[in-house]
Protein: FAD-dependent oxidoreductase
Organism: Mycolicibacterium pulveris
Amino acid sequence: MTSLWLANRGNRAIPANPMVDADRSADVAVVGAGITGLITAVLLARAGKDVLVLEAQFPGAGATGNTTAKISLLQGTKMSKIVGKHGVDRATQYLEGNREGQEWLTQHCEAHGISVQREDAYTYAQSENGLSSVREELTACKSVGLDVTWVDEASDEAGVPFPFAGGVRLPDQAQFDPMPLLDSLIIELDERGGRLAQGVRVQKVSSKGDGLVLSVRTNDGAEFDTHAKQCVLATGIPILDRGGFFARLQPNRSYCMAYRVPGDITRGMYISADSPTRSVRYAPTAEGDRLLVGGAGHPVGHRKSPASSVQELDAWAKQHYPGAMQTNYWSAQDYTPIDELPYVGPILPGNDKIFVATGFDKWGMTNGTAAALALSSRILGGRMDWAEAFASWSPHELSGIPKAMQLNLEVGLYLARGWITPATRIGDRTPDEGGVVSGPPWDLEARSVVDGVEYRVSPVCPHLGGIVNWNDADESWECPLHGSRFAPDGTLLEGPATRNLTAAQ
């Protein structure tokens, strides 16, 4: 399972890379080498800060290397949700942050010769049932000043091969391959004296005097401390429980496939407002354009068989693009905030040592860049006028309390179900592909078979004790509580957990 962006990039093995003593301190430690972390690091390095980036795997291993990479200000039905919860003024601030992120990104790509395709973006209804939400998005976008228009089902613009009942169009948006961007940022970071350490997982951050101590573990098992004055957690979801962000976000997994298609491929960037979600764009490659089709999303660990939804998505693509041949398949994890707005700023109110950036809700290209602009500005003593809409702590979160209560009630139910359900199947020790089995309740075991190899690990997530579920589409273990993911052998793939699943007893 490799994304189109990460394919053909040579050896991506995680290096052991233990760091020498001289490298173990910095003005600012940035945790995570995705789009947010690397842009933040470069902006701080440009201002003369000594910056150290710590990446548990390799640059782009998370959402950035597995995104659909749309650089769009039309974001599904996002704007109508924000206007509905927070009003036009706050939604306008959100838009301004995203616009500034979009402009920074496209200008950087132009200056560095990175290919960007300018295309129109569409939020559309697949049937009449979705038209009301799409029209609400049209009204909301106009209220904040976006130059959107309505596209009818019968218009020439709607000449797409899939069901299109009507939609919103925003011209002159952008799409790209995000990996050359990361490459350019890594080069500039190095030129400006910054450092990138790969295969280094941060497990704890604590205060010491006027600074911070980051406890890290390298890929070869070495453990040591890194010291910094300030720290930015750009890890998708914060790896520290301070601030309770794990309880203020819903982790969602979605899937994408690339196809070789005979004949013309749809231009423009499309995303449906009604379910099941369908996301469509094209991508230039050295072997010709590829069709990208995404969707089949679900809360992490909550779907019994994600593979069935992925198969349905694949069938949809082949139905509407006859002769399509799949070349790549991948998935990504995104985090939906309880009040629709991202969390960018101090991990706790008044804390100017540790900062977070999360809650981009599948629109990380513009939101992640905006977060980097806001964080670097704050660390350097400035501020962005629109940053209030991205605040990590703000009264506007009150609008998200009902959703937070619902999500955390579900967390409690999944915690109880995870421990109780296997106990009702005592003696069932042979899951067909992957699953949690039980002897007595204290003897739970997660078993999976991948490519003929059987794996046995403890099913207890090291974050808060949830029982993991098997994802048959990704062949991975997922915690239904807060979205931690693990390989079949228990190796941690993404947090908020910071440790692997332990071996089965």
The radius of gyration is 22 Å. The mean pLDDT is 89. Residues 78-111 form the longest helix (34 residues). Helices lie at 35-46, 78-111, 131-143, 178-191, 306-320, 364-379, 401-423.
